[in-house]
Amino acid sequence: MVAQSPTALGTFREPFIGELNLTGREVWIRAAEVYNGIAIPVDATGFQIGLEDAAGVVSFVPSGALPRPFDREAADLAKFGVNLTKTMLKTVRFPANCFTHARPSLDLTRIRAAIIRLNRPDARDFAFDQLQIVTV
């Protein structure tokens, strides 16, 4: 999925089938800053990921900086005549207990959705792939 938001606060909510107990688990998602074909911004960017429990309590944590697009423009233009700069996906891992550290009232035993929040002021595009709940 390529997520685009016309505003600085875009959200995507992925409801689960039923409720999940995430105690002792991790939320994994592959994510990247999308190369827009024009220029790679100077600074890194990221997003927030949240969990929503059955009572509607939501807790968000930051992703940290995402991998930058792999800038191949100078070499590619000289050799091939085209820019083959790549978007670089990376698996970002979030232990479920980090969500309760951010918001202690979150009930990890009754999680009903994951939420991705695009919260950066420059509204860059993000690539997301393979949202997983993993037993560690």
Structure description:
- The structure is a single chain.
- The chain has 136 residues and is mainly beta.
- The protein has one domain (2-135): Jelly Rolls (Sandwich).
- It contains two helices and eight strands; from the N terminus they run E-E-E-E-E-H-E-H-E-E.
- It has helices at 73-80, 97-102; strands at 2-3, 10-20, 25-33, 48-53, 58-62, 90-95, 111-118, 126-135.
- It has a four-stranded antiparallel beta sheet.
- A hairpin with a 4-residue loop joins strand 4 and strand 5 (58-62).
- The radius of gyration is 17 Å and the shape is elongated.
Short overview:
With 136 residues, the protein is mainly β.
Predict the CATH topology.
Jelly Rolls
Main pleated sheet: 4 strands, antiparallel
Distance between the termini: 26 Å
User: C-alpha Rg, in Å?
Assistant: 17 Å
Uncertain regions: pLDDT < 50 for 5+ in a row? none
What amount of the residues lies in strands?
35-45%
Mean pLDDT: 88
Q: How many independent structural domains?
A: 1
SS content category = mainly beta
Number of helices: 2
Order of helices and strands: EEEEEHEHEE
DSSP helix fraction: 10-25%
What overall form do the CA principal axes indicate?
A: elongated
List its salient traits.
136 residues, Jelly Rolls, 2 helices, four-stranded antiparallel sheet, mainly beta, 8 strands
Produce the secondary structure layout.
Elements: E1 2-3, E2 10-20, E3 25-33, E4 48-53, E5 58-62, H1 73-80, E6 90-95, H2 97-102, E7 111-118, E8 126-135
